Amino acid sequence: MAKVTLTEQDKEQISAMIDGEADNLALFSSEELESAVERYSLIGDVIRSEEKQFADLNIAENVALALDAEPVHQIDTEIVANDNVVHVNWKKPFSQFAIAASVAAVAIFGIQMMPTEQVITTPEAAVPNVETMPFGGFATPVSYSSEPTVGSAQKGLRELQEQRIGALVLEHQRQARLVNSQELNKDKEKQEINK
Amino acid sequence: MLCIAPINAQEQNAEQLLSSMADTVKKSNFEASFVVAKGRSIDPYLWRHANVDGKELEHLSLLNGAGVEMVRVDNVVTYFEPQSQPYSLKNESVSGPIPSILFSDISALSPHYHFVLGGKSRISGRPAQLIRIESKEQQKFNYWVWLDSESSLPLKAAYVNTDGEVIEQLQLTNVSFTPVPSEELIAMSKKSFPAPVPSLKKTEKVGGWDIAWLPPGFKLVKSDRQTLSLNGELADYYLFSDGLVEVSVFIQRPLGGQQRSKALSSGATTVFIHQAAGYEVSVVGKIPAMTSKKIAESVYRANQ
């Protein structure tokens, strides 16, 4: 495989969009988003044509269920009082569509890829123009962009895409925690078998 | 552990140093500050650890923005995040910026990584020894760790590409060891935490998709259909791990419009979104962009 790496120039052009400051996080209008989500839901699972048995493992739901049974914890205020860490009330649910701080801390730059067909045939040209991509929904002037002025429909789509990326990164982080946990349990099982 | 004849004394030495690091962290009472630099962004963290009556207490806190708090009492880690209720998992290390494997049995990495002793340097005002965890394959990042020559504590760590360029790095700015455990940490550990969520059962594999290519060493950890918590979208989900890094593959319906495939990255974390015919494949993980691209493009509908 041809080795393709980012050029120095690409790197210089990388622009971090978000520094993780909560103040800077523009919360998506939940009404707007809901209607958009609804619209996209209507498209249906066209791509999944066949009936499948999916493993019943919805992390968020399982976690929520497990937590429902839990007593209310006071750690939020205590931690804050103790060490002056972050003044956040953990019990208070944030807007569901707020980009997670952990995600927001993920300052993201974009590399606009060539159309897929071309990428396949000429992998060397696969990392052409780096495009700064506002991520997390707050208006940052795009310092330069290979795209023409975007219309509002495109802008809405772009926002949805950014939300999707945020959701994927957060999901990845959470799932990765479960991996480690699972591996631990596997190790324990092995040890017990060995005993 | 069985002693395998050392192929190379140096290699064994690097491994030993890494396990003494894990040992130091486990047994020490310390409070440290570190930053993680990804491109232009810097995330500061507070990291505290104590050993009380044979029990480990650990607290890792992201200090910017809304923050993330991870509290570990022995082998239960509780995650406090702004966008969800706190929850606990059984785990012997917190899932922080340093890969968890470094705090457990790193020999699990040896089929796919070399452990190499690097040079000595001065980090955070202390003499440090570099240990390079080098991927045997070109398609992955290497992980370098600088250990305090005295205490073995990690002073600096970095994801490095095959050209030796630092992609993302972590640097300790301050560390203080204390003979007695921190009172605050003890007090914190006495709070009540959510009961750990039951560990994952062996999940049924989600059918329908073939992921034809992954770098050597990556194994399927789980697959299922996910509802993404942030936006409620559905995704067929596959999670792979090579022990050091995790890679997620999401298959979703496209958002519509004229989307093009694109890559995004933040430090070592890459998101590659591949637009296939009728579906969208996203690959997320601490791997080079070209590797995520190759994985994403290898996803096909099965049996069709």
Low-pLDDT segments of chain A: 1-59, 73-148, 188-195
What series of H and E elements makes up the topology of chain B? HEEEEEEEEEEEHEEEEEEEHE
* Class from secondary-structure proportions of chain B: mainly beta
Order of secondary-structure elements of chain A: HHHHHEHEH
| Share in helix of chain A | 40-55%
**Sheet having the most strands of chain B:** 11 strands, antiparallel
Overall residue-averaged pLDDT value of chain B = 89
Which terms would index this structure?
heterodimer, A: 195 residues, mainly alpha, two-stranded antiparallel ribbon, 7 helices, 2 strands, 47% helix, disordered N terminus, B: 304 residues, mainly beta, 11-stranded antiparallel sheet, 6-stranded antiparallel sheet, 19 strands
What can you tell me about this protein's structure?
The complex is a heterodimer of chains A (195) and B (304). Chain A has 195 residues and is mainly alpha-helical. Chain A is built from seven helices and two strands; from the N terminus they run H-H-H-H-H-E-H-E-H. Chain A has helices at 8-13, 30-42, 59-68, 75-83, 101-104, 116-121, 152-194; strands at residues 109-112, 129-131. In chain A, strands 1-2 form a two-stranded antiparallel ribbon. Chain A is globular and about 55 Å long. The model of chain A is unreliable at 1-59, 73-148 and 188-195 (pLDDT under 50). Chain B has helices at 9-27, 183-189, 289-297, and strands at residues 30-38, 41-52, 55-62, 69-73, 76-80, 87-90, 113-123, 126-135, 142-148, 154-160, 166-177, 209-211, 219-227, 234-241, 246-252, 262-266, 269-276, 279-285, 299-301. In chain B, the strands form three sheets. In chain B, strands 6-5-4-3-2-1-11-10-9-8-7 form an eleven-stranded antiparallel beta sheet, sandwiched between helices. Chain B has a six-stranded antiparallel beta sheet with strand order 13-14-15-18-17-16, covered by helices on one side. Classes of the chains: A mainly alpha (195), B mainly beta (304). At the A-B interface, helix 2, helix 3, helix 4, helix 5 and strand 1 of A face strand 2, strand 5, strand 6, helix 2 and strand 13 of B. Strand 1 of chain A pairs antiparallel with strand 16 (262-266) of chain B, so a sheet runs across the interface.
